[in-house]
UniProtKB/TrEMBL annotation:
Record-linked CDD domains: Sigma70_r4
Gene Ontology process terms (BP): DNA-templated transcription initiation
Record key words, sorted: Sigma factor, Transcription, Transcription regulation
Listed name of the protein: RNA polymerase sigma-70 factor
Entry similarity comment: Belongs to the sigma-70 factor family. ECF subfamily.
A GO molecular-function descriptor: DNA binding
Organism field: Algoriphagus aquimarinus
Pfam families: Sigma70_r2, Sigma70_r4_2
RNA polymerase sigma factor 70 region 4 type domain segment(s): 120-168
Boundaries of every RNA polymerase sigma-70 region domain copy: 23-88
Amino acid sequence: MSQHLKELVCRLKEGDKMAFDELYGLFHKKIYLFCLNYGLSQMDAEEITQEVFVKLWLYRNTLDSEKSINSYLYKIGKNVIIDEFKKKIKTQATQEYQMSLIMPSNNVEESMDYLDLKNLVEETLMYLPERRREVFELSRIKGLSHKEIAEELGISTKTVENHLNLALHNFRAALQKTNVLCYALVSYFIF
């Protein structure tokens, strides 16, 4: 590693934002292209690149100026990408499983019930207050934990729980107005 990079790392460890900005300028494009090479979309690659530099700043005290900052950034990038892939696989598997629970057979009547149920869920979602809907979608559709939702939205985990409880109450009320079979199916899917 060049002497200049070592100096930047030492300054970064001391909390020097100008050193961070310079490292960002030197490595942003490299990390971004690294992410794209893993098959990520431009938006995902940019988000992960930003996360890499956030982690660099947060863990700057653990840096070793004798070790390659380049390798360190790529290692962070690789770990974040792996975590992102795991999250996407989990989310996709959860959604497929949930859909398999309520997917009707080829029976026309069941198909109509399914469409009615789907419309009811979408309509109920639409009428939820914005933050409550956002919390519900992050939890039940994207599969995020309460802690992850709290961090993403900048609210406490208790607030996340309150929003979810209220959203579930809204769904139960809407479902109870329809029929018991629908309620049983969706309560298994949502709750």
